[in-house]
Design goal:
By secondary structure, the chain is α+β, with helices and mostly antiparallel strands. 41% of the residues lie in helices and 13% in strands. The structure holds zinc ion.
């Protein structure tokens, strides 16, 4: 198994940490390594991240103008694979965290709502017992507000089929496919459109 250290160029290396998806940046300046975690452990000269970079020095990627052999290129593809895997880990981890933040928010909000409702019952009962619509207090004003009768859609299909109580949203957007087809067919660029040649894009498919 190759190391997952990512060479960012300019003597910068990204080293995986024990936390999934988290990378430490190790930089090499005038022969001295420094790691962004150093601020956390100033008493150590070489943190584990720097040690990993030094131990894997053989894996440094040569200058970009070097002619590569197939084996080198394959090794670089392995690095791309490592980056893909870290990216996947970050995505998974962030989705998990978003889920738990959402759950935490819902639980906290629902508890607070319950607490507030508890007091509001007394405020409402006060106005009703005094037969008042509103009352100004030191900390604010409380009042009773008339609500419209609640509208309940019992049978959505029935309401829709009458056709009277519906609205249709229409969205206008640019159809790029039809622009391409038109240019292909007529050779003419429509107003407001330009075509710029692009360099070939490399794609890769990894073996498991
Ligand atoms: Zn470090």
């Amino acid at each position: 198994m190759d190391t997952l250290i990512i060479n960012e160029g300019d003597n910068t290396f990204l080293v995986p940490t024990e936390i999934v998806g988290e990378l430490m940046e190790v930089t090499l300046n005038n022969g001295n390594y420094s790691c962004e975690c150093n601020k956390l452990t100033p008493w150590e000269n070489e943190c584990d991240h720097i040690k990993q970079v030094i131990n894997n020095k053989m894996d440094y990627i040569p200058e970009s103008d070097t002619a590569f052999e197939m084996a080198d290129i394959d090794r670089l593809l392995l690095r791309v694979k490592a980056i893909d895997e870290i990216e996947q880990d970050i995505t998974t981890s962030s989705q998990e965290q978003l889920r738990s933040i959402k759950l935490w928010t819902e639980i906290r909000m629902s508890r607070l709502n319950k607490q507030r409702d508890y007091y509001l019952v007394y405020l409402k009962a006060y106005l009703e017992s005094k037969n008042k619509r509103t009352e100004k207090l030191v900390n604010g004003t409380i009042s009773l507000r008339k609500l419209q009768p609640q509208l309940i859609i019992e049978d959505e299909e029935k309401v829709l089929s009458q056709g009277e109580f519906v609205r249709t949203k229409s969205v206008t957007s640019i159809d790029k496919k039809s622009i391409r087809n038109s240019i292909k067919a007529t050779g003419v660029l429509p107003d407001g459109i330009d075509l710029v040649e692009q360099a070939d894009k490399l794609s890769y498919k990894l073996e498991n």
